Amino acid sequence: xxxxxxxxxxxxxxxxxxxxxxxxxxxxxxxxxxxxxxxxxxxxxxxxxxxxxxxxxxxxxxxxxxxxxxxxxxxxxxxxxxxxxxxxxxxxxxxxxxxxxxxxxxxxxxxxxxxxxxxxxxxxxxxxxxxxxxxxxxxxxxxxxxxxxxxxxxxxxxxxxxxxxxxxxxxxxxxxxxxxxxxxxxxxxxxxxxxxxxxxxxxxxxxxxxxxxxxxxxxxxxxxxxxxxxxxxxxxxxxxxxxxxxxxxxxxxxxxxxxxxxxxxxxxxxxxxxxxxxx
Length: 279
Fold this sequence. Notes:
About 30% of the residues lie in helices and about 20% in strands.
């Protein structure tokens, strides 16, 4: 009988450990991968980071002013071997992936600075407006302190962040995106390519190039300019729901504060140019 009781006590003790192990296993982490090493941070580690501070920003995701506990991204990128022409690939828990130029990710000026905000489990952030899952932007979130004349792509506000990785620039990784050497440096096609990379590639691939998985490939099997009238395509980019609706529609609209008319025209020009290269 005594042996049976001891066995039962041991089993109950082992079972009591499972919830703690489960909680530890589910604790969210942020992975930072450099050229030669990878580091992993827990929420508590980021909250306790020596460089953590309170940062107040005009938040385009929450559509209001928000204050966060956050660490400068440049601090988290120390020791990663990031170069002047490199990018930082920010990947979210839903596999949303956007490349942020290293010159922005590492910036610390009066006009611009990138931070990784961290959610305190004791004070969770509110749900993101308009999201059907009613979840917040945490546990990690790329935010930006911007001066009056500074601007970054709204895609660079990467919420539900899971990982940061130093990579080559998009044109090194996917040279098929480039415009021809015969196109003058100041030509608008270069602007269109730049804006496509910063505004569209987080969700869309082009001819199979890129990491976007949220939306369709815009070059394959047909270039989007070959089956959309250009005014309708521009209207779709501005306000997708005004053109068509589809199940689980994720594409946001880009108003003129995020994407000027000239930049929108440049993106469409680049897409149309790439269509002619295949003929």
